[in-house]
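User: Is it possible to get a 3D structure for a protein together with its bound compound? The compound here is zinc ion. I've pasted both below.
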Amino acid sequence: MSTNGDSKTAVLPAGQDCGTQDSNVLRQIPVGALPLPPKPKALPVQQTVSVGLPPPPPVKTIPVEKLEALYNLEKDYDWSHSQNEAYAKLLEKFGESWFRDTTGSVNVGQNSYNNTTHIRFVTISDTHKKHRALSNNSMLPKGEVIIHAGDFTSIGGIKEVKDFCDWFGSLPYKYKIVIAGNHDLSLDKSWYGIDQNWRSLGLPKVATSCNGESTEIMRSSKNFIYLEDSAVEIEGYKIFGAPWQPEFCNWAFNLERGKQCDERWNNIPTDTDILITHGPPLGHGDRCKHGLRAGCFDLLRHVQNRIKPKYHVFGHIHEGYGTSTNGATTFINASTCNYQYRPLQQPIVFDLPKKTEAK
Ligand SMILES: [Zn+2]
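Assistant: Yes, that's possible. Here is the predicted structure of the complex:
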């Protein structure tokens, strides 16, 4: 199941341009061509980005006492127990309020974005073959960096992979970063090779010739950066990406809860500023439609106790879309597709100060 666990860091020079500009797409499509989600009905006057986004609601914060209690609980509790037991323990101690449901806020950036002092990051995820809806419906705000947190295909077919690469590589952002998700089956070489995996999902093997080819296509692209247990440094910020999640049916990039997850997350460098994983950590943007939480406890533990990134971007649980915080890290479930796999959830943006300006 596991691929290589090495942490690699590539450094891109500031100002490197990746790919062609395609801003005409944004101009040609009338704003509002896409039916917006029910709330809010009208676009507010005070916009921070060019299209389609509601104003930034305040980021939900967690009282410090609660955080401390949580840290203590985590320290004292033997988390090798099952996820269900962990839930039960957390519920017993803190009640439902411990779980930080996403606020649905879609803009955690500055009110007035200043691109001379700040870098704007635009995050999307789980486009499931419907990526072109984002550009065709003018849903993509301007920015310097776009991040896709995986599941860009439906079942990882080579045509789907290539179509995504063509589209993603042509977007008008200076830096474009993508990881794989559990649906991008052909990118998980060890999963792909086992026929039983395909049978268990009731799927035909997408195209036997593409085993390994998809990964090569992603890795060799000059138009975007593909991260798989690897990092890139952009404008002084370290960004790490990993496709894994705790077992989720029998899809790709699954890890057993507990030791396997812990070992995998242990590869994430502690000095990571922006973490991208396909799956959410426990308690943030991970509540499934049926009420259970699919997030990874071990990921939460590494993120909260060790890595403490400024932002943690993920997707996977479409209905967990939105943002939340533990006071140190802002968690972003950037799923573009909603529960019904319709690409209606807006990109979520955040801003970080330019390091050269801050000096
Ligand atoms: Zn998905």
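The first strand starts at residue 9 and ends at 11. The chain has one domain: 18-62+100-358.
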